[in-house]
Amino acid sequence: MDLELRLAALSKLMDNKSEAVERRLGEEFRRIESVLAHGIDYDQLLGALKILTVLAPRFHGAILPMLANFVTSIRARNLTHDGEPIPKSRLRYRSVGHLIREAIDVVSPVRFLYIEQAVDFLLALSRAEEEEVRKHAALTLENLANFDLDIFFGGPRPRCTIQARIVGHLGQLDNQQLVTNANVILRVLRKALSPVLKAIPGLIRPLPSIAAQSRAAGIAQMRADTLVLLKRMYPLDEEIGYRRNVLNTLDEATRRERPTVDSDTGRCSNAIPNSPRLSSESCHDRSLTTCSDD
What we know:
By secondary structure, the protein is mainly α. It is 59% helix and 1% strand. The chain has 16 helices and two strands. The chain has helices spanning 3-13, 19-38, 42-55, 60-73, 96-106, 115-125, 131-144, 149-152, 161-171, 175-180, 182-192, 214-217, 219-233, 240-251, 263-271, 280-285; strands spanning 80-81, 84-85. α4 packs antiparallel against α5 (96-106).
């Protein structure tokens, strides 16, 4: 069956709880598990990763361990295409690095369920030998620490649980791990200290005052824990660039965002009936910053 048709068919089955469907999805998952563990055909492996993305919500507990095993073992395999070794001239388009980047994308459906495991997985890949893998892993980890308004306001009260868990987990790393991964960790901590929650495309709701709710949401405590971690990191390496990077991250805690309106925020405002157009003054009045605990 064509891969796109298979993906569409599996997507339709994901919400079906019948015994027959459970058995069918289980068989497909075990097939994918075997392919990722032992396969060498590039197209077959790429297809298996795409299918695993669809199956991930159903088999969420097994996803990150399976991916960790895959990215570790795939480097020892000689990839093939149509039964033949991939020539060096084609490795630019069908490489181990491309498969690992695809594996990073599989994390997305389960990233909020297993935050600590996702952080460890992405942190390790941010040191991969391929530049494109390093960049993709670092960016994915950085995005994990973003304040997503749908999640922040998704419960009975605003919470920054994701950021708090990320900061807490990074705080459990030993000193050598903190230094080795400093560049990526500091990028993540800047997100945790970000003074602004930006509107995201498609969000149709007024933006509440973040500053007024910062204590109830746990933002103040999370930011305090972030500062403690940064102060711990500063003396670990005497290299000037390293310390400057830590200080620049600490500076994020005191930076105030200039009142501006981006196009997404403007569209959110225009979509709300009887809502005044957001100007720089109204943005300032709405206190869209997270850094104030007053």
